[in-house]
Amino acid sequence: MKPPPFDYRRPATLGEALGLLAEAGSGGKVLAGGQSLIPLLNMRLAAPARVVDVNRVPGLDGIEAGPSGVRVGALARHAAVERSPGAAAAQPLLRQALRLVAHPVIRNRGTVVGSLVHADPAAEMPAVLALLGGSVRLASRGGEREVPAAAFFTGPMESAVRPGELAVSAFFPALPARSGTAFHEVARRHGDYAVAGVAAAVTLDEDLRIAAARVACVSVGPVPVVADVTAACGPRPAASVAWDAVAAAVRDLVEPEGDIHATADYRRHLTGVLAVRALRDAASAAHGEES
Ligand SMILES: Cc1cc2nc3c(=O)[nH]c(=O)nc-3n(C[C@H](O)[C@H](O)[C@H](O)COP(=O)(O)OP(=O)(O)OC[C@H]3O[C@@H](n4cnc5c(N)ncnc54)[C@H](O)[C@@H]3O)c2cc1C
Questions:
Q1: Domains in the chain, ordered, with CATH?
Q2: Which residue has the least CA distance to atom 52 on ligand 1?
Q3: pLDDT per residue over 11-46, tens digit each?
Q4: pLDDT for 77-89, tens place per residue?
Q5: Is the CB of 81 under 6 A from ligand 1?
Q6: What is the pTM of this model?
Q7: Which of 13, 72, 147, 276 has the most CB atoms at less than 10 Å from its CB?
C-alpha cells in the first residue's frame, strides 16, 4: 500500500522544525529514522497531515558520554550508539540492549530517541530508559522541558510528547561503582520484537553483597514494567540468593496478555526465567566478570 497524502517538510534548522510542528499541531509527525513511521504510513495506520523530516537539522546527532551518563541526540542512530566506545563505557546497558534491537540495517537508520517516542511496549530502549531512571528532553517553540522516564511512557505507543514538541535528546544515567547490567530476551526469530525481555541492574556493597537490584520487563504490560527486587535479592552475595523466590517475585509483578505469539502464562513464566538470568549476569558484571 501507499501512504495517504501528506505535506512533507524538510527543515534546515531546529527553529524551522519547531515552527513547522507548532503550525501543524496534532496533525504533525516527526520523521527520524522512519523505521517505524514509514511502515505505519504505508499500512495507513497513521495519517498525519504534515510530516516534518528532521534528518537535515544540524546538531541533533550527538552522543555525549561522561561520568554522569550518556546524552543521545535525536538523530543518533541505534548503530552509532551501539558502536560508541564512550557510551559503552559510561552505560554498558545501551550496547547490551541495542544488539537486540531489530537487525543491523534497521539499526543503521533507526534512532534511539525515535524508539523512545514510538513507545512500543515490546521495544528495548524504553525499558533501558525506565530501568535507569533516565529522561527525555522535549523542545517546542515555547521552550524546553525534561521529562523523567517514569512520566514519559504513558501507554502502548503513547508518550508524553505533546503536539508541537520535538524530542531533542535522551539522557541515560550512569550507575554507581560496583554496578553491572544485562539484558536478556526471547524472540521467535533473531531481530524480531521480544516475546518477553528483561533488563537488569545490580549494585554490590563493599562486601560484594547485593545492595540494589532492579529489573525492567518488556512485552508484559502497556509500558515497561520496572520492579525493585533488592529485598528479594539482598543483602547477600549473588551465589547465596534464592533465585527461585526472585523469579516468583517478578512473575507476581507483571500482568502480561496473551496473543498469537504466546499465552499470558508463558510470558509470565518466561519473564521470571529471564529476570534471574539478567540479574545473575548483572551481578557477575558488577564483580567485574564477563558473563
Ligand atoms: C522489521 C523491523 C523490526 C524491528 N524490531 C525492533 C525491535 O526488535 N526492537 C525495537 O525496539 N524496535 C524494533 N524496530 C523499530 C526500530 O527500532 C525503529 O527504528 C524505532 O522504533 C523508531 O526509530 P526511528 O528513528 O526509525 O523513528 P521513526 O520511524 O522516524 O518515528 C517513530 C515514531 O516516533 C516519532 N518520532 C521519532 N523521532 C522523534 C523525535 N525526535 N521527536 C518527536 N517524535 C519523534 C515519529 O513521529 C513516529 O511517531 C523494528 C523495525 C522494523 C522495521
A1: 7-53 (3.30.43.10), 63-173 (3.30.465.10), 180-286 (3.30.390.50)
A2: 35
A3: 999 999 999 999 999 999 999 999 999 999 999 999
A4: 999 999 999 999 9
A5: no
A6: 0.97
A7: 72
